[in-house]
Design brief:
single chain, 8-stranded antiparallel β-barrel, 23 strands, about 20% helix, elongated
Length: about 375
């Protein structure tokens, strides 16, 4: 068996497919399949599934020769890493050895060995449901931010360790919490016929993080046990979801009153809390003191930073957890509102709302 592929296309698709494979998973395997003048690359494990296709040409095949092989995961990853050092890769040739045990990958002066492995081949993934198309850059950025908020022990058995995806006909809502702070991001979607909730751990979501091209659109997809997306090249990346019950986070939103509201700059508040934490990094608590049209942020050493505002509000003092606030600030837009009211049942919750503006500079 001999065949050739476009080097740039092969490396791009194969790299995305194998990145979605957790090599530490038991039974992780990579399948090469020749079908309809295409090389299908399929990676499967207990917790992930990915598949991509590359056109092949100059095919030389003997009668009754195999067209399906399990190849070494680690060796393929190493070969892709080596090939990434070459720019403008054109043709790469794959040549099967006479004993059918090794592929030789040839490019320019390179001759790299890709061993064939013997093992039962996993079945294909369950039926895939299409959810909706979204901008890849926006989706990746939002998921990456929420992963940091939810990121904790991946072995912890609790829904708070997961990013929540609430899928509805017109909205995809992403939610994450560290048990102190909670973030909600709503992405409008169209023509979604699926309503479901998926919980995914950050270590699984990290397998979906691939490079973003400009104006790149992806289609979110799911199965009964997995969640992921299909890109414009038809490459499929899916990771396992957790079967925990979802968090009823809307009850936390109901704790927040909008009696008081203050507009603030993310950069100014972030500079204030970060600076005060550096001056007193042995204590995570900081005080927010709202008084005389100002917000004064104070640490336990009584270092203070004053932020002036035109907003009117009641005099209020509250204690803030710095690590949670820092994670939330990373998600916020440039300008935001902070809202709060009286304590409810001995608890006061505050809400940060990102301000979006239209082309005319008006708040939406």
């Amino acid at each position: 068996m001999k065949f050739m592929v476009n080097g740039e296309v092969f490396c791009r698709i194969a790299s995305s497919v194998i990145k979605c494979l957790n090599l530490k998973d038991s039974g992780a395997q990579t399948l090469f399949l020749i079908e309809d003048n295409k090389l299908i690359i399929r990676c499967t494990s207990d917790t992930s599934y990915s598949k991509g296709e590359v056109l092949i040409y100059n095919v030389e095949q003997e009668k009754d020769e195999d067209t399906k092989w399990l190849v070494s995961n680690l060796q393929l990853a190493s070969i892709l890493s080596i090939l990434s050092n070459y720019k403008d890769k054109t043709a790469i040739q794959f040549v099967m050895s006479s004993n059918q045990r090794i592929f030789e990958v040839r490019y320019e002066k390179l001759k790299l060995k890709l061993p064939i492995e013997e093992a039962p081949i996993f079945e294909d993934v369950e039926e895939i449901r299409k959810i909706a198309s979204v901008d890849k850059s926006e989706f990746m950025s939002n998921v990456s931010d929420l992963m940091k908020l939810a990121n904790s022990d991946p072995n912890s058995d609790h829904p708070m360790t997961c990013v929540h995806f609430f899928i509805e006909p017109t909205n995809l809502t992403l939610v994450a919490t560290d048990a102190i702070g909670l973030a909600e991001i709503v992405i409008p979607i169209d023509d979604c016929e699926v309503s479901e909730i998926k919980l995914v751990k950050p270590n699984q979501l990290s397998l979906l993080m691939t490079p973003v091209k400009e104006d790149s659109i992806i289609t979110l997809i799911s199965t009964d046990t997995k969640f992921g997306y299909e890109d414009s090249n038809g490459t499929i990346l899916l990771v396992s979801v957790s079967d925990y019950p979802h968090i009823d986070y809307k009850q936390f939103k109901n704790l927040v009153s909008s009696t008081n509201r203050m507009k603030f700059s993310k950069d100014e508040l972030k500079f204030a809390v970060d600076s005060l934490f550096r001056l007193c990094n042995t204590n995570n608590r900081q005080a927010f003191i709202f008084k005389d049209n100002c917000l004064v942020v104070r640490n336990e050493n009584e270092d203070m930073f004053k932020i002036s505002t035109d907003s009117q509000f009641d005099d209020t003092v509250m204690s803030i957890n710095y690590p949670s606030l820092s994670s939330l600030l990373n998600i916020m837009s440039s300008d935001n509102y902070i809202e709060w009211g009286e304590k409810e049942g001995g608890i006061r919750a505050i809400k940060f709302t990102c301000i979006n503006t239209n082309e005319d500079g008006e708040e939406e």
